[in-house]
Amino acid sequence: MDSVDLAHAYYDAIDAGDYEALRAVLAPDFEHVRPDRTLAGRDEFVSFMRDDRPRTDTKHVVDSVTAGVDGAVAHGHLFAPDELMFAFVDVFETDERIAKLRTYAD
Q1: 98-105 sheet: strands from edge to edge
Q2: pTM strictly above 0.85
Q3: Rounded CA separation 56/31 (Å)
Q4: CA 22, CA 85: separation in Å to the nearest integer?
């Protein structure tokens, strides 16, 4: 899978609540840096997404994903059933899997 495919697989897995598919696209030492926290390690991230995130009824609408030298950059919007929650830019660092993700949100 190339970096663009990994990014799409990441969003698909989260939106579907498919935590095994999510685990499969993340490197064991995956790190997610976001405005409100940093999650270190694939297990911590998957556990947070499955058990602790405030809303699980969200959907990522990805406007674009652009491949780069060491990963990809995605721009999109996160929606809940009744509202637009926020716009985001995600910067993925990839190899065979996603090694690091930095999220910027408005």
Answers
A1: 37-40, 26-34, 98-105, 83-94, 71-80, 59-67
A2: yes
A3: 20
A4: 22
Please name every residue paired with 88 in a beta bridge, in sequence order, or none if there are none: 76, 105
Q: Which of 80, 103, 105 is nearest to 7 (CA)?
A: 103
If we measure between CA atoms, which residue out of 42, 56, 50 comes closest to residue 98? 42
What are the tens digits of pLDDT across the range 18-45?
999 999 999 999 999 999 999 999 999 9
β 37-40/59-67 pair status? unpaired
Q: Residue with structure tokens 């991230």?
A: 45
Per DSSP, the residues of 53-97 read -S-SS-EEEEEEEEE-SSEEEEEEEEEETTEEEEEEEEEEEESSS
Structural contact between residues 29 and 97, judged by C-beta atoms closer than 8 angstroms:
no
Q: 59-67 and 26-34 as β-strands: parallel, antiparallel, unpaired?
A: unpaired
* CA 38 – CA 8 distance, rounded (Å): 21
